[in-house]
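S1.2 Input.
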Amino acid sequence: MKRYFIGIIIVLITLYYFISSAATSIIGKIDGMTCIECQEKLIKAFKEKLGENTDVQVIVSWKDGVGSVTFPRSAKVDEEIFKKIVEESGFKISQIKKSKTNIEELTDVQRLLNKI
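S1.3 Output.
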């Protein structure tokens, strides 16, 4: 019985480790993008500033006026960095939110922004 509880504790600790090291996302409503070149400019800026070869995933849609950056929780990215990159690229943020969700598609960005 003692081994059973020790096993459960080990499983819970392991699960906690994986959950706590999961991804975090920052999403924003971005004003001023008018074309695909704007979208590509912002994606390039995110990748240059956050590192092109990192585990950072960038989603930007000029048509929807949204963007997101998903990164490991161990990364040093916050809303201010996100906002700074957007503004230095010539655009404005009208909404911004941090989420403990791994965003993989544009629909995830739209859904989370609608919760703001």
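S1.4 Remarks. Strands lie at 23-31, 57-61, 66-72, 92-99.
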